[in-house]
């Protein structure tokens, strides 16, 4: 037989790579399950999240008032609380027992209680208090109740101090009301909104999870369609580890390059979320992130034996991965074991890096830890993917040889 030259091997390898790429690309758009995870879920899921949290903050929280003072000053306090955008006083109760019952019936989420001595204490120069009770099953209700009552109490405190000071000029009144002037500036989240805080992390995690599910489903389908339940088919184009890994990886990378533009650029613009990162910086950051996610998913797909297995193995991990990423819960408060465990997943570095670039205007040098970690993950998972597929090639050959021997023995 004619010996194949090194140049011919390179040419054959490149041809096989593009054959595998084209076949995987066609499989992606012919398999309805893979198409759902690769296209439909990234298209629809971010929109659902965005519409749920489109208001950013909780407004007009239903509350009830118990006014035991029945004075003009207590009524003024309640009017000002009701006038804030955070609280809506739905009714005035005669006593605390009636107010508690409304909380139990979920007709209100907070109680504002003004004691009977409220106006008398202020008139006598004594310190008084207003009590607020909040349904702590929802922390955002507590936030609205506390902010509204704090703002009103500070405003009325200023008026009372000015009235008692006996000043003669407006400037003296201003200094009396605010001896120390302060300014509250919310950095990187001007609206203090929940969507601007949570959705960027969810979008990055969505890319990893849909890749896991889509590639896992594709691997399960390949095993089900294979006579010997192997991941790699017996085909002359699949006679090499690098061509298989690079061919499949290139197909997934091309699909998710477009998906990522929609998920990370178009969706935040639709819902007017904070976007101050440089597009070039974001593109350079996404290259190692997508590569790490793809090779991580290809390595993990070795555990998939049928189409349904990926749903059982990967779907439930979404919420834990969001928690241990250090976004929904402060990273400094995460136990050391879970912090280091989170380094296994590309989403940990992807979420933190993306938020710092997109929401805080960071550069690659400012996210160098996450950027380098993603390149290390991409390299490591590329090697593990090569190892996995090399082993699958050998197993496929072994099964075919065993089957050939059985048939040969029966014929003899």
TrEMBL record:
Single GO MF annotation: ABC-type transporter activity
Protein name per UniProt: ABC transporter permease
InterPro entries associated with the record: ABC-2_transporter_component (IPR051449), ABC2_TM (IPR013525)
Stretches assigned to the ABC-2 type transporter transmembrane domain: 34-385
Residue spans crossing the bilayer: 33-52, 194-219, 250-271, 283-304, 311-332, 373-389
Compartment annotation: Cell membrane
Alphabetized UniProt keyword annotations: Cell membrane, Membrane, Transmembrane, Transmembrane helix
A GO CC term assigned to this protein in UniProt: plasma membrane
Membrane topology reported for the UniProt record: Multi-pass membrane protein
């Amino acid at each position: 037989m004619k010996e194949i030259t090194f140049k011919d091997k390179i040419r054959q390898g490149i041809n096989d790579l593009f054959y595998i790429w084209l076949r995987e690309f066609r499989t992606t758009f012919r398999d309805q399950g893979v198409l759902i995870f690769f296209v439909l879920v990234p298209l629809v899921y971010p929109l659902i999240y965005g519409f749920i949290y489109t208001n950013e903050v909780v407004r007009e929280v239903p509350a009830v008032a118990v006014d035991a003072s029945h004075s003009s000053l207590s009524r003024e306090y309640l009017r000002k609380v009701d006038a804030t955008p955070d609280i809506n006083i739905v009714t005035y109760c005669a006593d605390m027992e009636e107010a508690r019952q409304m909380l139990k019936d979920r007709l209100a989420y907070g109680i504002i209680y003004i004691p009977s001595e409220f106006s008398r204490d202020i008139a006598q120069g004594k310190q008084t208090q207003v009590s607020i009770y909040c349904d702590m099953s929802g922390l955002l209700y507590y936030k609205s109740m506390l902010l509204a009552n704090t703002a009103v109490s500070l405003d009325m405190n200023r008026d009372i101090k000015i009235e008692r000071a006996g000043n003669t000029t407006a400037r003296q009144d201003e200094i009396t009301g605010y001896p120390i002037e302060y300014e509250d500036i919310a950095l990187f989240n001007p609206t203090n909104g929940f969507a601007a805080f949570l959705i960027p992390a969810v979008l990055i995690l969505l890319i990893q999870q849909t890749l896991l599910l889509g590639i896992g489903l594709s691997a399960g389908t390949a095993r089900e369609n294979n006579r010997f339940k192997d991941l790699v088919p017996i085909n002359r184009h699949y006679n090499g580890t690098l061509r298989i890994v690079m061919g499949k990886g290139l197909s997934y990378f091309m699909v998710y390059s477009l998906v990522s533009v929609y998920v990370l650029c178009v969706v935040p613009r639709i819902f007017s979320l904070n976007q101050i990162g440089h597009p070039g910086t974001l593109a350079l950051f996404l290259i190692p992130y997508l590569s790490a996610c793809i090779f991580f998913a290809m390595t993990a797909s070795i555990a998939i034996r049928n189409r349904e297995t990926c749903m059982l193995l990967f779907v439930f991990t979404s919420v834990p991965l969001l928690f241990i990423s250090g976004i929904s819960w402060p990273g400094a408060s995460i136990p050391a074991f879970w912090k280091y465990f989170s380094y296994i997943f590309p989403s940990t570095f992807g979420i933190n890096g993306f938020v710092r670039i997109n929401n805080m205007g960071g550069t690659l040098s400012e996210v160098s830890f996450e950027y380098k970690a993603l390149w290390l993950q991409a390299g490591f998972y590329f090697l593990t993917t090569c190892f996995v597929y090399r082993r699958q090639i050998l197993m496929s050959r072994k099964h075919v040889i065993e089957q050939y021997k059985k048939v040969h023995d029966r014929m003899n």
